[in-house]
Structures are given as C-alpha cells and as structure tokens.
Amino acid sequence: MHLSSDGASAINSTKHSSIMSVGKLLVKHGSLIDLERSLSAAVMIKATMAMRERNLRESKASMSKKSLKTSIPDSTEGQLIKEETAQEGSVNLSVLIEFIKAMGIPATIMGLLALAAQQGLNIYQNFWITFWTEDIYIKNATLIHTQSYTDITFYYLGIYALLGVLQGITLFLFGMIAFTRFVKATGDIHDRGLNCILRSPMSFFDTTPVGRIMNRFSSDIDVIDDRFPRTFRMLSIMGFMLFGTIVVIIVTTPVSMAVIIPMLIVYIVIIKLYLPSARQLKRIESVTRSPIYNHFSETISGASIIRSYRSVNRFIDEFYTRLDINSCFYYAANTGMGWIGIFIESLGNLILLAVALFGIISTDVNGGDIGLALTYAFQIIIAMNIVVRGVSEMQMNVVSIERCEEYMHLPPEADWIQRNKPPIDWPQKGTIKFCNYKTRYRMGLELVLSGIDCFIENGERVGIVGRTGAGKSSLTQALFRIIEPAEGSIVIDGITTTTIGLHELRRKITILPQDPVLFSDTLRVNLDPLGQFTDTEIWKALECAHLKDFAMNQTKQLMSELGEGGNNLSIGQRQLVCLARTLLHKTNILLLDEATAAVDMETDDLIQRTISEEFAECTILSIAHRLNTVMDYDRIMVLDKGTIVEFDAPDNLLRNKDGIFYLMAHDAGLV
Ligand SMILES: Nc1ncnc2c1ncn2[C@@H]1O[C@H](COP(=O)(O)OP(=O)(O)OP(=O)(O)O)[C@@H](O)[C@H]1O
C-alpha cells in the first residue's frame, strides 16, 4: 500500500515510540515489507487512537471506580477495549522454556555446566584443605626433612591455587555465556513481539490501548533486559553454592543434618506460601501500570485541547488516581519483599539459637562438632536468604517475560505473501467488482458493509458519498483488507483479493488519506523512503504536485529536514508532499479518502487538477465530503448504513428529487 499521507500530526510522542521501534526495525532489515508493516502499523495506531478518544470517558469511569478486574470476562466479543489480563497461578513453565530457547539451548547448557564445574571445583577445594591437613607428613612435620616439608606445602598450595584459578575461569565463562545469551534472548523477545504487533490485525489495535503496548515494550522489556539477568546470575551462583555447602556438610559433619533438614523444609514452606502472592502482586502491578502510560500519552497528545478547556487539574488528578492505584500494588509487592526478608532472617537467627542451645544442653556431642554445625548453619542461612529472595524476585521478573511473550503469539493478519502471486503488472486495467460484500470490524459487532454489489469499470472515476457512519472509509479499508470480508468478495481485474498476499494487494493500490503523515526526515526520504527513484523523477513529482518552487527555495532543497511529523510545513504543504509521494508510486487504482478535507480551497483545486491530469487513465474512488469535488466524476456511489442506495452519474442522481444525493447536494448549496 502506498500511503501518501497519514495521521502523523496526530501521532505524536506516544506513537513516535512505536514508530521509533519500527524505525529500528527498518534500519535493521531495510526491507519493503518492514516499511509497509510499519506504515500500516502507524495507520492502525492512529485509527486506534481515534477510537480510544471515544472510550476515554468509559475507561476513566471504570478507573475511578477503582475497578481492577484482572481477567477478561468470558464474552469479550465486540467489546471495544478489552481489559488487560493478568495471568493467575504459577508462571507457566513454557514461558521459561521459550526464554531458554531464545537464549539457545546448547549455550544455556554450557553456561550451567560452567557453573556446575565452578562449584565442583569449589567443593573439591574445600576437600583439598582437608587432604592437606590430614597429610601424614604435614601432621608429623618433625619426621621429615625441612626441604621435603616445603615441597609438600608448595604442592598442596599450588593445587589449591590452581583450583582457585580454574574457578575464576569457569565463573568467567558462565558470566560471559549468560550475559551474551541474555542480550540475544531479550533482543529476540523484543523483535518477535514487535513483529507480531506490526502484523496484528486492525481489531488488535482497536481493542488494545497504546499505553498497554508501551508498557510491555518499556517496563517489561527493561526488567527482562536488566533485572532478570542480574537475578538469574545471582540465583544460579547462590543456588549452586548452597548445594555445594550442603554436600560438604553432609560429607564432613553428618550430625549437622539434624539442623539442616528441618531448616530446608521450613524455607520451602515459606517460599510456597510467599511466592503466589508476590507473583500475583507483580502481575497486578504491571497491569495497573498500562492505564498510566495510556493517560500520559493521551494527555501529551491532547495537551493543547486540555489547556484550552482549562482541564489541566482534572487530568493531573486523573493521573494521580491511576498512579495511586498502581502504587498500591507496587508498595504491597515491596512490603512483601521486606516482610519475607525480616521473616527469613529471624528464622535463621532462631535456628542458630537452637543449634547453640543444643550444644550447651547436650553432653555427648563434642565441642568441635557443635562449632562446625554452627558455622555451616550460619553459612547456609545466608545462602538461603539470598536464594529465597532471588527465587521470589525471579518469579516477579518472569512475569515480565510472560507478559512480553503474550505479544509473541498474537494472531496475525492474513499472509503477507502467498504462493498464489498476481502477475507483476496486475492490476492491468483497474476494474473493481464487489460481489455481495459484507464485513464487520470484529466478531460480535454489527456488519458495517452489508451486501455491496457493484462493478467499477477501468478508468472510471467514482465519488463515494453518504452521511457520517455510512461506511465510506470502511469500503477503503475493505479494499486493502485491513478488515476482512464476513461474506462475499472483492475482485480486482479478475483476481479475488483474498486469494493473494496482503503485500501484493496493498502495494498495488495507492491511497491518499485525509491526514498527511510525514516522518522526521528529509524531504527526499519522505517522498521516496526506499530510495527507488532518481532525483529527476522526484523533482518531476514535486513539479506535478506544485511543490517544486517551494523545494527549490529551501537551502538544502531535497535534503531539507521536514521536522517532527512534518512540522516545518503547513498542513496544505504536507498534503502536497503526500500527493507527490502518490505520484511517484502511481498504480492503476487510486483511492482518495477525503484527501482534501483539511486544505484550503486553493490547495484543494491544485490537488484535484493534478489528480485529474496525472491519473487520467486510472480508476479513482474518491470519498468526498465536499460534494463539488466529485460533481464532475463519472458516477456517484451513495452509501447508507453499509449498503449502496444510489449509484449513477451525478446528473441522473440529481434528477431524483427524493434521492439522498439530491438532498445532500441541496444541503451543500449545489442545486
Ligand atoms: N475501528 C472500528 N471498530 C468498530 N467499528 C467501527 C470502526 N471504525 C468504524 N466503525 C463503525 O463502522 C461504521 C462505518 O464507519 P465509517 O468510518 O466507514 O463511516 P464513514 O462513512 O467513513 O463516516 P465518516 O464520513 O464520518 O468518516 C460506523 O458505524 C462506525 O461506528
């Protein structure tokens, strides 16, 4: 789809983040597919924003009631904004498996082996000291020659040092593998999630607020990027260390088991009790963060309107309300962490006290054993504390992976490219046939087009008119398969649009939408984002779009910066840039979706004249609010409630004084 313009003016800070991500993807792949995906995503995001404006009040009401439903009701069909889901129960194992797959299974195994080797070496190092002290020659140093004593000492010391160095190397290996793999896995999750979002159908954007997407791509990705690797590393090291310490204790002083086993049981019970609440708090905290992002982005994009209506304080209050709701769960999660910290440390101290009392009371256990038991109990308590905290933090972090992975499994739009490809020069003529075409925006909603049946000849210019909500824009969305048919089909030059890939379909139809979208880049990049055309061709397009003089007068000409969303240009000029873009990417079918609604009469005239001259051979479908722009068209299609009620030459329609078109023309003062 050649998007000549779009809602860039409306897509500001919030949407720019998405577009920046899209940009990142473009830089990475530099492919047409990605560009088209990003453009369609931008269009969709824009459409979603418009719908959300409508629902702002509704969502505010629900927020002010502090409704914090965390699950989707059973029947969400047709519901506009779906509530954000918070999973329940333990984190699905498949989430972790997916993450390990993203890290690479061989690399993960190697990393864990390196850590196990480090711990093995550590255990052996402990035993090495025992061998050393137990050595008969060392024990009876007086029996041997001083030189031999020194040699033996160096032998033990050398091996001890070697074990230390090997531990350093294995730990370094673990760190290196873990961190490089983590970076890869996070990148993978981010890119796959983003790809899925960009390939999601319109209904996803209709039902998902931008803030929710932003939340996952900022906070959740940040947790996976930063906190999760740190916790994972600490937990693996401490877990292995704990295991190693327990092994050493079992081998050296089996008596300590009397303390260690009950202690492990108590800790496991604590973890089992604490983790579900910690995990759920984290989930709800994440879910309640999205409305903050949402409100913030809407406030920024509507700042001028909010100020002009003197509603600044109302919006600030609303922001605080949402922040408070989120803080409740954030605070509760943190307090929970504090509680578990105090609890396990107190428990550890109690265990130490019990061991000390046991030593004082018992008469048949020697002092050395009690001393050892105390030392090991102390070591284990420290390791357990770290492990318990690590496990709970890990569970909380895994919630972020879970949330991001949800976006990796979104149902996509139809195939981008299909095996059944249309001829390269399709559509050769530009005939369009609607066969009993019906469509709706989502399952559970009413049909917005119900039984469109018509044939549009090649080269015909058709004006599409109708009252607000009649289904005019839906018709253009149907042509691009942004919404899919519920019944019937659209056939373009003998090919049913649903039988070919979206990419092939969308690139063969040109649209000049109502809102001009420009990117913060040079004039040249805005006209030819993929660098397919020569400067001469671009200047020619600018000339046809009546922008040549303007571009010539710029110091850097084609390389002049247009500013954020084309801010350096007037709306009319932006529209002309979009027209020039349309002229460069000319196809046999042109859609004009109220393309001149935002420009003055003079620019409107310029655009109309250029379109008539440059697209003389093409089939043109033009949605028009200003009826005068389509009065000279071949035929007028009048839509009402999703059906064609009149379809004839303008003069014929004007003869029917009871017809809708006549009434509209009368209202517009044209008859
Ligand atoms: N994203 C959407 N989700 C659900 N319903 C939608 C969506 N967009 C439009 N509709 C509904 O589809 C119907 C037709 O809308 P459409 O935008 O096609 O009308 P239109 O004739 O282009 O109106 P206008 O002249 O105001 O642009 C309306 O009832 C509208 O509420």
Task: Give structural notes.
Strand 8, helix 20 and strand 9 form a beta-alpha-beta unit. The chain is 61% helix and 9% strand. Strands 1-7-8-9-4-10-11 form a 7-stranded mixed β-sheet, with helices on both faces. A 4-stranded antiparallel β-sheet has the order 3-2-5-6, with helices on one face. It is built from 22 helices and 11 strands. The chain is an alpha/beta fold and 671 residues long. It has a domain at 93-406: ABC transporter transmembrane region fold (Up-down Bundle), CATH 1.20.1560. Adenosine-5'-triphosphate binds at residues 47, 51, 206, 441, 445, 448, 466, 468-474.
Features:
ABC transporter transmembrane region fold, alpha/beta, transmembrane, seven-stranded mixed sheet, single chain, P-loop_NTPase, four-stranded antiparallel sheet, transmembrane helix, disordered N terminus, elongated, about 675 residues, 22 helices, binds adenosine-5'-triphosphate, about 10% strand, repeat
